[in-house]
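INTERNAL AUDIT FORM
Audit reference: QA-55
Scope: verify that the stored structure record matches its stored sequence.
Auditor: D.O.
Record contents follow.
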Amino acid sequence: MGGPSPPYYTPLSKPTTTAATTTAAYFKKPKLYSLAIVAILCSLSYLFGVWQNGGATTTSNLAATIPCFSTTSQNTTNTNTQTPSSAATPQLDFATHHSADDGGAATLSPAVKSYPPCDIKYSEYTPCEDQERSLKFDRDRLIYRERHCPEKDELLKCRVPAPYGYKNPFKWPLSRDLAWYANVPHKELTVEKAVQNWIRFEGDRFGFPGGGTMFPNGADAYIDDIGKLINLKDGSIRTAIDTGCGVASWGAYLLSRNILPMSFAPRDTHEAQVQFALERGVPALIGVIASKRLPYPSRAFDMAHCSRCLIPWGQHDGAYLIEVDRVLRPGGYWILSGPPIHWKKHWKGWERTTDDLNSEQMQIENVTKSLCWKKLIEKDDISIWQKPTNHLKCKRFRKIFKNPPFCPAQDPDKAWYTSLETCLTPLPEVSNNEEIAGGELEKWPKRLNTVPPRIIRGTINGVTPEIFQQDLQLWKKRVSYYKTVNNQLGQAGRYRNILDMNAFLGGFAANLVKDPLWVMNIVPVEAKVNTLGVIYERGLIGTYQSWCEAMSTYPRTYDLIHADSVFTLYKERCEMEDIMLEMDRILRPEGSLIIRDDVDELVKAKRIADGLNWESQIVDHEDGPLEREKLLFAVKLYWTAPASA
């Protein structure tokens, strides 16, 4: 690994070494000649920097970027001197303690802008799915449940509090079955869904028996039933989307089968269902199929699922099933259970007429047929359809049946505030009936490090197979370096829910797949190249996002946030403090951050981090101190709303 070992830093203790002591340890027995050359180069570099920035660089800023100057933010609430293992260098403590109770107070230098705690009413604030704001929008097709973000002058400039008594979640896999009541203090579903075995309240915690509306015997047994109908074991099915996921028990039990789910549901009357999913350690987002495309690329998922999700699949000219078709891979499966499937048995319990249910099923059958899907089987309460592997036959079929027509030339991966259309997204061209449109994927886990078909076909501008291979090695090196700074990144169970704010090809996530965690890979809509389709072809998951807006998730979603060049990307687009306030909102107390960026951007970020009551330290690039790109490692200190709130 190039460069010196990075400094370590403890958020609960003050450094005990001076800059001179650390410098002496850093330079071991240097030759006078070498020191002279280094001194001259540093002086020239400094003078050039002063000239380039109009004399704005200060000594304090330089000290913040050089590892031999041990610095600490001035907001430490507890001191507990520790003895580092290395030569008198302070060690950064990434461990969880969840015991400090300072109400979010911080003692800061007058020069640092402080961000006070928000009122407790914002404890579960989701800016773009705010329930009061949503009432201003059209209820038709659930448009009011879509993203509706605040204007710039409405943005909060405070830190969202955790509820009093908040504890770090149970470690996976225990978290699949248990969550602390204090973290999600909502009992509504324990009453509303009591007979369906969704969730139970047990003392100071919730239990998740694994039940669901259509699988009262448990999600595990339900998935076993699906596995008797299609192959869930050979690695051909890796990514799955669960529409209207409830508390995500289907996704939770898929994970043990090496299938990575993306669960979503709206923030609606089923209070906190997505929040429960995230507390359980299951990938999930707040979302709804309404008037906009789902925020995923085309051909992303091997399997899509709806279990009594109450989506009117046959209505609106089949727009919702057409959208499922867009995000399904060639040869992918759509699984439906619940109304109207097996209605002859269940119609009385569903309190609907036989004519109504029969009409709904015929609508669905007609739409799926128009999409050229094949109905594989309907057995008991489960129906499964399969999307064709290419559109050769479907194009011939269109000469007879005109609707829905194929969409005209468009970007099928564009999916950020993109309106739904009632036209069929054409698959990439093929030369024969046996060829898989877009290219055949390897089975999992081989597909992770195999060059993805989109890159082989040259559809990702500027990304070649050679660049992909270079990226594999680059992130192997980077993640290895991260683990030398944050030793808990390599400890199984410390982190479960991880966010990569600018994922590119998914290299960060790919180097963590052997650990019991998942990564939500973000491809910013402002990025020069849309690579989210490549990430899905590797068997990983993610979504689109603009970091000028809030993410569609609850506060305290993630245990660790990784941000590569995010501030450089959004420079002059939106305010750094607003991005960092959003990072603070979605990060758990005692969660960690790894931020890579140009040194000038990190110096600014360090000051905001101090104001957010994070403990942080800028360290050198993995290739050494002469690289302009540096890394900011940080820990969000534990604090909650006061008991009186």
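Auditor finding: record pair retrieved intact. The CA atoms of residues 24 and 68 lie 9 Å apart.
Action required: none
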